Amino acid sequence: MNMQADKTLKYLFVGGPPRSGTTALAKLLNLHPRIAIGIERYKYLYHDVARKDEIGPVLFESQRFFDIRQPETNVRAHAYGNFRELRRKFESVHYRGDKLPSILRMHAMLDRALRRTRYVFIYRDVERVCSSWNARAENPRDEWPEMNDFRAAVKLMNRDFRSIHSLATRRPRKFILVNYDELFGENGDLLLTALLRQLGLIPHPETSRYLQRNLDTYRLLRSKPLNLDDDQREYIQANMDWKVVNEIRSILLKPVDAERP
After folding, report:
1. Which of 33, 48, 219, 227 could bond 134 through an S-S bridge, CB–CB 3.0 to 4.6 Å?
2. Is 261 part of a structural domain of the chain?
């Protein structure tokens, strides 16, 4: 690592409940020339108590980061989409880090090991997350556990949203919340600009092009019926902690004002 990069380098982590769009957010951010983050690069290592002393800056040095090892992750280079470009720009980025839905529960360990850390959590409509969990749990060809259905999704979101709200309320510049539908919807550029400003970065044409290219995909996903029946919807309505959901919604990052330069 060159000395100039070392003076300004910070660590950025992306998280949120599974099936909320964490991978899409990580891939979007990776298109920015000043950001390079993994796609669950150290997912097994973070959870390995016996190896917790290995968590530190060395994991995010180029030689180590691009040496993908089976005991640390099951996500290979092809999943990144732009792995070669990630390697090319790695030494000049302002943020390095990783994406993992459960990164919330690792933040204290990462803060101690890395110090200069920031986190972006993504929020997605509760019923759509539950529907996605159902679809995977019901698919016999998917390795997703059958028990991880809409009920499990509600339980996990209730737990995670409470923790995320507490962190983001106390330290809003360190823990940033973004709305999936606003980011990948019609005016996503305005929210992306706000997010990059929070990170001390300026917008880049490649990230804008990505949002435009994927707008039709987003519209198609929104048009699909939810994989939830009436009883399942009733369960969600009765068991979701809507108070904390509303609290989360109230502190989501706001898009920049389109009227302002």
Report:
1. 227
2. no
204-237 as b/e: b if 16+ CB within 10 A: beebeebbeebeeebeeeeeeebbbeeebeebbe
Sheet strands side by side (includes 10-15)? 35-39, 95-99, 10-15, 117-123, 175-179
Find the domain containing 179 and state its range: 3-250
CATH code at 10?
3.40.50
- The answer to the question of residue 54 being in a domain is yes
d(CA 45, CA 39) in angstroms, rounded, equals: 13
Structure tokens at 152: 């499990």
What is the spatial distance between Cα 130 and Cα 148, in angstroms, rounded to a whole number? Answer: 10
Is residue 86 within 8 A of residue 79, CB to CB? The reply is no
Does some domain include residue 259? no
pLDDT (tens digit, 9 = 90+) per residue, 146-155?
999 999 999 9
pTM of the model: 0.94
Q: Which residues contact 1 (CB under 8 A, 6 or more apart)?
A: 9, 61, 62, 91
41 close to 75: Cβ distance less than 8 angstroms = yes
